[in-house]
Amino acid sequence: xxxxxxxxxxxxxxxxxxxxxxxxxxxxxxxxxxxxxxxxxxxxxxxxxxxxxxxxxxxxxxxxxxxxxxxxxxxxxxxxxxxxxxxxxxxxxxxxxxxxxxxxxxxxxxxxxxxxxxxxxxxxxxxxxxxxxxxxxxxxxxxxxxxxxxxxxxxxxxxxxxxxxxxxxxxxxxxxxxxxx
Length: 181
Prior knowledge:
CATH class: Alpha Beta
Oligomer: single chain
Strand content: 15-25%
Helix content: 25-40%
Keywords: Hydrolase, Protease, Signal, Thiol protease
CATH superfamily: endopeptidase domain like (from Nostoc punctiforme)
Number of strands: 10
Shape: globular
Number of helices: 5
Largest sheet: 6 strands, antiparallel
Strand order of the largest sheet: 5-10-6-7-8-9
Mean pLDDT: 79
């Protein structure tokens, strides 16, 4: 007999059916395919300039978040939809796990819920330990942890492991946020 709680059923249902908020489709982020964002050549160039301009400075709390994220990226943890354990994680399960284990902050296991725990700012203003979100605010579909120097850690997509990735114009976060704590 399979035991599932309400959150697991909801996440599974959302994953199978998909959700539409207004005119914005919420989709699984697939970094290798560029997610569901489409950019013009000019937008990609601007996104690349933003990625190159990102700064790096950290506080002690943010350093522990970055260290834990990097540690998990070395453990070959597979992407698992709705996962939030060492046996598998999805993007919001990964960020939830890192923050719960390093700061004691429970972000919730949903990108939109996690948006409610941050002070929003632009991607160019992201600092190590901040969350990077893909999709419009209130309808984000992917999240990762910025680690500095234009890099982030995330659980990217089925068939891939939690890993370090580079912020790029082809798969540019929409906004970032510093976790309130």
